Amino acid sequence: AQTVTQSQPEMSVQEAETVTLSCTYDTSESDYYLFWYKQPPSRQMILVIRQEAYKQQNATENRFSVNFQKAAKSFSLKISDSQLGDAAMYFCAYRSAGGSEKLVFGKGTKLTVNP
Amino acid sequence: GEEVAQTPKHLVRGEGQKAKLYCAPIKGHSYVFWYQQVLKNEFKFLISFQNENVFDETGMPKERFSAKCLPNSPCSLEIQATKLEDSAVYFCASSQSLPGVVDYEQYFGPGTRLTVT
Fold this sequence. Notes:
The complex is a heterodimer. Chain A is built from no helices and twelve strands. Chain A has strands at 3-5, 10-14, 19-21, 24-26, 32-39, 46-52, 60-61, 64-69, 74-79, 88-96, 103-105, 109-114.
């Protein structure tokens, strides 16, 4: 079974600075997807960014980018120019390549943004 | 609709009572997933459906939990004889099935918070 590990229960960053959230995963599959979800206090799950394992290029979405290291099974999220609205829980998730497969989540990292 | 709808928003049950949660997937989506997020924030997969058929139920506690997705009705997750440990937020997510499309993003509903007292 696949597992996802987020080793940082909490992180903090100053507004306008850059922060990196860590995620490692364990799998024997070669084709899969990785995701970062943001969960603000409202509990709504918001997809931040996703990465297809077969793509070598790291995904980017505006201020959010990932560092995907397939051999090391590492998938970190970098948030640039942090904003107060980025404060939330961030979950790393794994999904097998089949479209009907469930998401496997890490335990989350609580990000605080200091003004 | 264009969003996954979940009702109710909040449900309070005494220990031993039944709880029933509902999920309306996005129109046209054929996959529905249920996840449980306990108060420590950890997510647990419960069950998934392809249309009205159970696709994966490896996460379902067998004894007290059941779920259905019937045609032309919201999907439901029912907990018989709730326990304190069932207190959690229950999320429903749906995704599409399109010929030739490999990736199907899961869209999450707002969740139902179940409090068992």
